[in-house]
Amino acid sequence: MGWIYTATFYTAQEVSGRFCPWCIADGSAAERFAGEFMDSYGLDGVSEETLHEVTRRTPGFHAWQDPHWLMHCHDAAAFIGEVGYSELAAHPEALDQLRQDLRMGGWHDAAQLEQFLTHLGEGATAMLFRCTICGTHLAYADAS
Q1: What pTM does this model have?
Q2: Domain boundary at 16, 46, 69, which?
Q3: 56 and 4 in one domain?
């Protein structure tokens, strides 16, 4: 039995949404169906080659909101996975960055923000990434 990809794929064509990993990795699935596996949101400033690698040759992931890819050191970060608070707390730089992003996004009540963060994994989750250049961990919150 083999692997089949069933997460996101954006195209104007009718497709079953099931792709083999090799057709994703070599770019043939995206080319054949004129589509992308990830949105380019958040990837401003990366090279055209990196943009194509993430959007057309990298499997996407399921999320409550539209999934997006994070970047650091002017390059796309590596997606680690969906995590809860305990996994995120193991990477304090990602937790601090997420806390700051949420404050900038309108979370002004510190107690409510900490309540939200400590309950990640119980409904809302965080998407964890790692910079492939410097190793810094990054995250964003995903909730319904």
Answers
A1: 0.89
A2: 69
A3: yes
